[in-house]
């Protein structure tokens, strides 16, 4: 007899729930299973239709990695339904009722008779605090998977009607995605908590920018505060440190007619990991150290003044080593737009071209100067063609008077790279970075060829 597929939660309400099942034989088997399990393990990863999870009960994923239950964050006494790492029970990675806390311990999670997953409050008139939005009908079970994903299944099929991975909170786990689902028009994004004690949506969001080349943007409300730099085929161009952990946690960018997404997986045996956008506006990647029982930070962004979005203004160049001059300078062929501002070490007005370009009616005398070691500028409005060589890219950029700069879009093949990204608007958020790329900047011929 297999109990594994029919384990019930260890709670009196489970008995009431099973009594609604029609087949007597099944009922007997289930009751025996409950009895055995209450002795043997007392844990389950599943809630069947009609069953109830009350405050104090938990679901534990089959491999034991994740736990679902009610909790109060930090000093708060409010109750939330969430999923946390079993080894680190104050590390919550998903919250169902972020901005609808329960005020006491009367919460219940039910997969109700019409097959909808409902978090209610029994102290008052069966208030619905949260419900998953899928077409009800035939949902038979909700299961907490060992990936940390809570899925509602249609009958015994594997097809999920709803999953918590589609409604991220502030944490990206292996197997989750950021970006756009072209098919449904939906977007996956992370939103910080309001504070350590309050999981309601806070000031910061982290999204995948899907125009130009894919890159991850951190937002304070509607203002960009930090970007990772564009995807270069291997890692995000401004985060070279990802090379150190990409073997353990392979990064995955998918551009297809159905989706433009970023996600990552965990190699077999790799430690637990998570990416969080915290309420102070930092994105972090952490890794669990089982021996010290602590989370170690292996990435944080923004990490220095040059990561501050657009710090040096249009055509400005930020150098993290140049603290004494306020970090900001201009790219070759440009000088500070506001000379008095440069004196006060603030370059927010950006830089101005020293010598005008010469391009009209299909002829030009302009050329390109290579600026190396770059985190490439924001590609939001850049045009991209993955299918051309860098030489063709140069020719295209030269032939179009609006083109201000170009760079390779993909460095996987080594050398100077392939593919083409071209900027026709201001060059914004440029900085020096380890293993940075070449940016080819259009300049007047009078500026080219100087040493
Ligand atoms: C969380 O874990 C700590 C230490 O592992 C334990 O003392 C505490 O009781 C746990 N809290 C809950 C709510 O399970
Ligand atoms: C659920 O399963 C039933 C029968 O297997 C099927 O007819 C129905 O279309 C499925 N519903 C969804 C939303 O997948
Ligand atoms: C359901 O998923 C499990 C685990 O991913 C897999 O082993 C199994 O073959 C799947 N079953 C069907 C019918 O797709
Ligand atoms: C937020 O992240 C930063 C950078 O990793 C870290 O220094 C800080 O302690 C974090 N704050 C909280 C409240 O977790
Ligand atoms: C130049 O910068 C200074 C100091 O930041 C500012 O007061 C002034 O308005 C700026 N001038 C122009 C023309 O933007
Ligand atoms: C791209 O264009 C939009 C709309 O004109 C503008 O708001 C945005 O600032 C531009 N982004 C960059 C990086 O230039
Ligand atoms: C030149 O570049 C601009 C900006 O990317 C674009 O809108 C325009 O279509 C291009 N012109 C030609 C002739 O390709």
Automatic annotation (TrEMBL):
E.C. no: 2.7.11.1
Bilayer disposition of the protein: Single-pass type I membrane protein
Pfam families reported in the protein's UniProt record: B_lectin, PAN_2, S_locus_glycop
GO annotation, cellular component aspect: membrane
GO MF annotation list: protein serine/threonine kinase activity
Keyword terms: Disulfide bond, Membrane, Receptor, Signal, Transmembrane, Transmembrane helix
Catalysed reaction, written as an equation: L-threonyl-[protein] + ATP = O-phospho-L-threonyl-[protein] + ADP + H(+); L-seryl-[protein] + ATP = O-phospho-L-seryl-[protein] + ADP + H(+)
Residue span(s) of domain Bulb-type lectin: 44-165
Domain Apple: 359-444
Ranges in coiled-coil conformation: none
InterPro entries named among the record's database cross-references: Bulb-type_lectin_dom, Bulb-type_lectin_dom_sf, Pan_app, S_locus_glycoprot_dom, SLSG/EP1
SUPFAM superfamilies: alpha-D-mannose-specific plant lectins (SSF51110)
Enzyme class: transferase
Record GO biological process: recognition of pollen; response to other organism
Annotated transmembrane regions: 25-43
PROSITE patterns from the UniProt entry: BULB_LECTIN, PAN
Location of the protein in the cell: Membrane
Domain of life per record: Eukaryota
Primary localization: membrane
Entry function: Involved in sporophytic self-incompatibility system (the inability of flowering plants to achieve self-fertilization).
Name under which the protein is recorded: non-specific serine/threonine protein kinase
Species assigned in the record: Triticum turgidum subsp. durum (Durum wheat)
